[in-house]
UniProtKB/TrEMBL annotation:
Residues 292-318 form the EF-hand domain. Pfam families: Peptidase_M6. Residues 1-26 are annotated as: Disordered. GO terms for biological process: proteolysis. InterPro entries: EF_hand_dom (IPR002048), Peptidase_M6-like_domain (IPR008757). GO terms for molecular function: calcium ion binding; peptidase activity. NCBIfam families: M6dom_TIGR03296. This is EF-hand domain-containing protein.
Length: 651
């Protein structure tokens, strides 16, 4: 699923922006000072619910476009400013002062949110009865302490509870085997409706497509930079691309079928169950022009995502980008009830809204959906990649499968230059094979190359991603080079590169975790702002990645790995780094004080910082509170903690 766009773009909209997750609107409210309060749920209850839903099957989708925007309060044109946060499973409005707001579905009023339960009894954000309209009229005369407050942990728990973690229904998500020469058929269905859901106002939605079909031909199948095919050719180095699916409507075999259904637009937003019957009707209507049986290449009776990809471009707007309606939220998933056509079962699909709204030279402008949302959704449906925009250390802008789908260069619309796939996604897609460094390998200098055609010592070298393993086969680090060039120019949406063009990005991977639980964690020195050039490693920043830095090279369970990455050069197409290990366990060391012996032991650490500088120390492991020292502190036996530990025979 595509994430919400999260930058500082301001878009003035005359739309009914909705927070679409409460489902528990209150018909009665008594204004700002007499609001009813819902039952507040504890984190334990929320965590329990998150665990209970962990086996459900979600759609994958784009996250919401980031940035404060004007949210209309009523037909008079009054607005308030807030950012839409979340995805198709869970989203809400956050005002500039941190107040969380939701739409009361029964009254169409925006209200301050509180924790409660929805109609099904599940924990949810619900309207509190405190009207945003009243707050706006009162200005700053209301003490924020009197308003319901919901902290980030509670919001994350609700998001986790609402987000299922099953993979895309397509078969390519698990493998890392390099691919060669894949040309995947892509069928695009431009879906229109008879009229706009009963709306009769001037300039109202008519149900018709308003974008030129030539735009979709070039954006989807063209070879120029900024097209879907060019993006995947760059990411795979020519190993993967889409071809026009065979069809006979209009211009035969251009891959596009235009279908107009005799229904009103469902305005489904993120309600995919509401949308899917219309998609099935569209598939049936397209069947006279498409022989679906011809795409069942393995003869198993099903048309799978590695045989044909189906993309619906639905007339109207993209929910993740704006509040204009009618809209759908871009997503990729399987039909709840698959359809059989030409004797073959079809299930998987991707869908996006036709139009987005972006500010161009200060003017809110309606335009066709930008390419970022498309490459993100096809990353799900064609490649099987998961969303990476959630987790304790989110990937942020560093991958198109996270917030990077909204990347852009300065002044261009969001999503027009989607950021490159991050290291893990490129490996999982089979687009690159990693260079592997095994635990305990000798210290070495490594060249980390961003783009093909770079030269090292006069020789052309290929792009490189280093996989640095740990003693746990499920856990490893990935090292890649990110520079302000190619599709990574889309990082300009978040990063002012200035005199520093980029640097080395480091990821910690734990394959035993789900994507939303931190399977892929970007090692940012400032986790609250992961999309920052300061989080890259280069000589200019002077940062290193060792057991004693923050972030440290501990694995995802907090266990010592001994890995050190040091001696980075200046930012450029080829980055150099010094890799060394110091994993010397010393289990014979015991505490000389009984209470310390109960709670843990220490590990001997030898770290090579280069230039013949060696560090020898001991670090605590075990229960932190009982040990009385933070696990990242070095305990030097004869100085820092005399009498706490004894070395015994270990050296």
């Amino acid at each position: 699923m595509c994430p919400l766009e999260r930058d500082e773009t301001r878009i003035e909209e005359d739309a009914d922006m909705t927070s679409r997750d409460s489902g528990a609107g209150k018909v009665e409210h008594s204004g700002i000072f007499g609001a009813r309060r819902g039952t507040r749920l504890g984190l334990v209850a929320l965590a329990a619910l998150a665990s209970a839903v962990s086996m459900s099957r979600p759609a994958a989708a784009v996250s919401a476009e980031p940035g404060l925007r004007a949210i209309p309060l009523d037909p008079t044109g009054a607005t308030f400013r807030a950012e839409v946060i979340g995805d198709e499973h869970f989203d809400y409005l956050r005002m500039a002062d941190g107040t969380i707001a939701v739409l009361n579905d029964l009254t169409d009023d925006y209200e301050v949110a509180e924790l409660g339960r929805d109609a099904s009894g599940a924990p949810a954000l619900v309207p509190s009865g405190i009207l945003i309209r009243d707050l706006r009229e009162l200005g700053g005369r209301v003490d924020p302490a009197l308003l319901p407050r919901i902290d980030d942990e509670e919001l994350d728990a609700l998001w986790e509870a609402a987000t299922a973690r099953a993979p895309s229904p397509l078969p390519l998500a698990a493998g890392t085997t390099p691919i060669t020469g894949i040309r995947r058929p892509l069928l695009t269905i431009l879906l229109e409706f008879t009229q706009g859901g009963g709306i009769t106002a001037p300039n109202a939605f008519t149900g018709n497509f308003e974008t030129d079909i030539a735009y979709w031909k070039q954006t989807l199948y063209g070879s120029l930079e900024g097209s879907v095919n060019h993006y995947y050719a760059e990411m795979s180095r020519g190993k993967f691309s889409f071809v026009r699916a065979r069809e006979t409507q209009g211009t035969a075999n251009d891959g596009i079928v235009r279908i107009k259904l005799p229904f009103a637009h469902p305005n489904s937003k993120k309600d995919f169950a509401l949308l899917q019957p219309y998609l099935k009707e569209a598939l049936a209507a397209a069947n006279p022009f498409v022989n679906f049986a011809s795409f069942d290449t393995n003869g198993d009776g099903k048309v799978r995502g590695d045989e044909l990809n189906v993309l619906f471009v639905v007339a109207g707007y993209e929910t993740s980008n704006s509040g204009k309606t009618p809209s759908v939220w871009a997503h990729a998933t399987g039909l709840k009830e698959p359809i059989t056509l030409d004797g073959k079962v079809l299930s998987g699909y991707a869908a996006i809204g036709e139009r987005q709204i972006h500010k161009i030279r200060g003017v809110a402008t309606t335009m066709p959906a930008t390419v970022g949302v498309i490459v993100h959704e096809l990353g799900h449906s064609a490649i099987g990649l998961p969303d990476l925009y959630k987790g304790p250390t989110p990937v942020g802008a560093w991958c198109v499968m996270a917030s990077g789908s909204w990347g852009t260069t300065t002044g261009a619309p969001a999503g027009s230059t989607p950021v490159a796939m991050g290291a893990w996604s490129r490996l999982k897609a089979g687009f690159l094979a990693p260079t592997v460094i095994h635990p305990g390998a000798p210290a070495q200098d490594i060249p980390v190359v961003q783009s093909a055609g770079a030269e090292l010592f006069g020789q052309s070298v290929d792009p490189t991603i280093y996989k640095i393993e740990t003693s746990d086969p499920d856990q490893y680090f990935l090292v890649e080079n990110r520079q302000n060039e190619g599709y990574d120019r889309g990082l300009q949406k978040w990063i002012g590169f200035g005199e520093v063009s980029g640097g080395v990005g480091v990821y910690r991977v734990d394959e035993a975790r789900s994507a939303s639980k931190g399977k892929v964690a970007f090692m940012a020195s400032n986790p609250s702002s992961p999309s920052s050039v300061e989080n890259l490693y280069n000589e200019e920043g002077g940062r290193t990645f060792t057991p004693f830095t923050d972030p440290s090279s501990d694995d995802g369970d907090g266990q010592f790995t001994g890995l050190s990455l040091t001696a980075f050069n200046e930012a450029g197409p080829i980055m150099l780094a010094h890799v060394s290990y110091g994993p010397f366990g010393c289990n014979a060391i015991t505490a000389s004080i009984a209470e310390h012996e109960i709670h843990g032991r220490v590990q001997k650490q030898v770290v090579d910082f280069g230039d013949e500088q060696m560090f020898l120390g001991y670090r605590t492991t075990g229960g932190l509170e009982g040990l009385g020292v933070d696990k990242n502190e070095v305990v030097t036996l004869h100085v820092e903690a005399p009498g706490m530990w004894s070395v015994g025979e270990c050296d």
